Q: What sequence folds into this?
């Protein structure tokens, strides 16, 4: 939700541990935090400022900011320093030291038996490590992301991605880069994800693998915020979403996880909550658990325990 209640197409990614992101935004269209910080300020559905220069003028009208910038940077307030200041602040939002970190460091009882089983499942039958770890072979417990992009089937049915890709190809051929940028944030073509950046067909509706630290307190989930609880996320993976999705990642397939398995993986994800968010995490887990006992919109047990569905071929141009 942005200025004047305007709604954008994307769920705000967390700023916690953002300093480790290799690329910024769900589609990786910016590299540095400085580059990222400049865009929401002027995006018309986010902060809606006419330009960075106008923003500098506005902030410069406040004496404390003027003096602080002079003090820190040794020169008058300007656009690049404003972005440096925001990015530097973000780099302080480092969040580790979760119960899981104590567990991995050797304190076997730092997380309960359910979370321990969840960590096993994460690396085996759950197949989560294939993307949420730096390497497929080695258990990596630092960032929970491969810094890569995948189509895991989010928003595919709602948006008819294949038709959108055709439409976007026309737009890309027109070579109008600012129109392409607006499409990423303000139009339905947002669903095309990484494709709008690389223009490569296999990247259609691919998004960045997010870090899972503090995921319990950073809902809703996925690039479009379409899932409310971690149980809904698990139901999505369990059925191996991907009907009518020719671009679905090969690693997404039905998982045949039982309800007990799902609870365990959720318990593992909850154990990634840092001490600063402990209280909030306890409340949120209780809220999500209660909700999951009554509403499970993504659950499809027949598909979860069924065979891997055939993958449709991409449409020919
Ligand atoms: C093929 C790669 C892949 C696999 C396998 C995978 N993920 Fe993901 N995960 C992603 C990507 C990519 C996203 C973002 C997708 C989007 O929003 O469109 C994501 C998003 C998430 C999110 C939402 C995070 C947020 O901040 O919104 C959670 C939670 C998650 N995954 C947990 C898991 C778990 C648990 C498993 C195993 C059951 C798993 N993932 C398996 C790639 C993968």
A:
């Amino acid at each position: 939700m942005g200025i004047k209640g305007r709604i954008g197409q994307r769920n705000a990614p967390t700023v916690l541990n953002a300093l480790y992101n290799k690329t910024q935004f769900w589609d990786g269209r910016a590299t540095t935090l400085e580059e990222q910080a400049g865009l929401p300020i002027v995006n018309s559905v986010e902060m809606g400022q006419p330009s960075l220069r106008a923003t500098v003028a506005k902030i410069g009208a406040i004496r404390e900011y003027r003096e602080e910038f002079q003090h820190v940077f040794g020169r008058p307030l300007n656009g690049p320093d404003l972005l440096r200041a925001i990015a530097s602040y973000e780099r302080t939002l480092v969040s580790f030291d979760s119960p899981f970190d104590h567990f991995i460091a050797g304190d076997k009882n730092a997380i309960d038996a359910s979370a321990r089983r969840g960590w096993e499942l994460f690396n085996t039958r759950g197949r989560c490590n294939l993307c949420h770890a730096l390497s497929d072979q080695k258990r990596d417990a630092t960032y929970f992301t491969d810094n890569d992009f995948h189509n895991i089937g989010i928003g595919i049915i709602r948006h008819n991605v294949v038709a959108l890709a055709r439409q976007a190809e026309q737009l890309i051929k027109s070579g109008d880069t600012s129109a392409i940028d607006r499409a990423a944030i303000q139009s339905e073509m947002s669903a095309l994800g990484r494709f709008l950046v690389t223009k490569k067909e296999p990247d259609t509706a691919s998004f960045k693998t997010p870090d899972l630290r503090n995921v319990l307190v950073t809902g809703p989930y996925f690039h479009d915020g379409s899932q409310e609880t971690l149980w809904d996320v698990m139901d999505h993976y369990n059925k191996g979403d991907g009907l009518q999705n020719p671009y679905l990642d090969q690693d997404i397939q039905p998982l045949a996880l039982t309800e007990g398995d799902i609870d365990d993986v959720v318990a593992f994800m909850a154990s990634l909550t840092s001490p600063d968010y402990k209280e909030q995490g306890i409340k949120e887990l209780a809220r999500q658990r209660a909700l999951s006992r009554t509403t499970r919109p993504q659950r499809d047990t027949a598909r979860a325990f069924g065979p891997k569905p055939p993958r449709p071929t991409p449409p020919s141009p």
Q: What stands out?
A: The pocket of heme C is lined by residues 126-128, 130-132, 150, 152, 154, 207, 209-210, 212, 215, 218, 221-223, 230, 233, 237, 249, 251-252, 265 (CB under 6 Å). The chain has three domains: 18-90, 99-153+209-304, 161-204. The first strand starts at residue 149 and ends at 150.
